[in-house]
Write a structure and sequence with these properties.
7 helices
Length: 152
């Protein structure tokens, strides 16, 4: 019993101490999406889906929920946002050449179709994306890609 008490006290101390370690947040003053919206021209429906399910992890401004202030959840969310921006950052859309934009939209389609996006861990906390929303995103992304007229 003594060992269990020592372990619990140690864990409590570690939990309290990690609260003082703060990760850098993904918070610019505003979410810059002008180049992305101008280029892809999403409908109001698609904009709402992107706002609800995509922008927090895939742009330069994240709206963090209250529980993101509590470690180790803060580390987990920070890692997700960092990974999301590394692979697909809509705020950097104007830095992408047309071929890369096409590739990013192709990846978006593939990730949604394979059920990899949004992440299961995201949907546990924020709710699931409906099949209709998935279809709207896929249809929109395919239309944008068709407009790029790239040689395949």
């Amino acid at each position: 019993m003594k060992i269990v008490k020592k372990i619990l006290v140690t864990l409590l101390i570690v939990f309290v101490l990690i609260q003082f370690y703060r990760l850098e947040k993904n918070n610019t003053d505003y979410r810059e999406l002008t180049a992305f919206v101008d280029d892809t021209k999403p409908s109001e429906e698609v904009k709402a889906i992107l706002e609800k399910h995509c922008y927090d992890c895939h742009s330069n401004k994240t709206n963090y929920p209250w529980y993101s202030e509590i470690a180790p959840v803060s580390f987990w969310i920070g890692h997700h946002v960092e990974e999301g921006n590394e692979h697909f950052n809509l705020s950097k859309w104007d830095n992408y050449k047309t071929k890369k934009r096409d590739h990013k939209l192709d990846e978006l389609i593939e990730e949604i179709e394979e059920g990899k996006m949004p992440l299961n861990s995201y949907t546990w906390l924020h709710g699931s994306i409906t099949e209709e929303e998935k279809e709207s995103l896929i249809t929109w992304a395919k239309e944008v890609r068709a407009g790029y007229n790239l040689e395949k």
